[in-house]
Amino acid sequence: MQENYNFICSPQLRPVLNNLYLSKKSIIKSVELNIQEKRESIKIFDIGCSHGYNSNIQLNFFISIIRDEMKCNKLIEIIHADQEKNDFTKLFLHINNDLQSYLKKWDNIYYYSRGSSFMNQLVPDSSMDIIISFCTLHWGDENEPSLKNIRYKELKNGGSFISNLCAGKTDEQLQITEDCYRGAKDIFREMANEKILSHQEVYDMTLPLIFFRKSIIDRVLENMNEGFKRQAEKYVFLDWNQESREATTSKNNAIKYFVDSTLGYQGGYIKKEIKGDEKTVNKIYNQFYNRFIHKLESNPNFNISFDIIFLVLKKD
Predict the structure, then answer these.
(1) Transmembrane region positions (predicted)?
(2) What is the CATH number that goes with domain 5-169+210-239+305-315?
């Protein structure tokens, strides 16, 4: 994975942090119910934890509500989940060593980890008070039930599910963005045709980014009347070019920033599917990396912009 992963994923973090306030009322109600029912602990489920940098910042917001505003010192249990291929060692090191980690800031908190796809049920029925899932659902399948069915089962009654989705209000806007991501898969296929990679290796390298059309999201939310109840919903426009200008000075640098952001997490998974020793793997991966940048540099329509919908749902 990229060594500067935390930096290149900052565009994902900012839209989340700027809208966490929308979840405050729901979090307070969920915790109040937990206290009222005298549950043993407050359980928080963090889906898509990666190395923990973004997760820790987000969790600090929720824990500060519980500890500092509600003055509740009950045991808090946090379950961090991500794919089996995730580097959980980096997660544990961050949680234990970072001075801004929730472990350093508050007492009576324990954490666990779970390596499995979020498309599976990951914890027992009715076991979680709060579930957070930021910048993860776009890696799934638009037809799978992780949003409505599985997460609903995992939450206790009165529990809160806070998440976001990559979305788009217009097909034209999304078409340009999706084409840029499809370019990565096209390069894999080119390399297979050139015998640099096998077709099986290419098949195993997935960049399954899903942008949900606004019409699909609206339909799903409308059908949640007998399950989740919407507490908050907000569309946030993300212009990756604008984000990149905060860290770069030219169009080409912006493209490199976008590629690094895209591959910051997926890059490690891609490397795992390439056969050969470390030198061979790095050589092939670097070829792909450079081709991806060149492909985007030659695209006059390069522009990455889309909406992120921030959702706060409660289980009734």
Answers:
(1) none
(2) 3.40.50.150
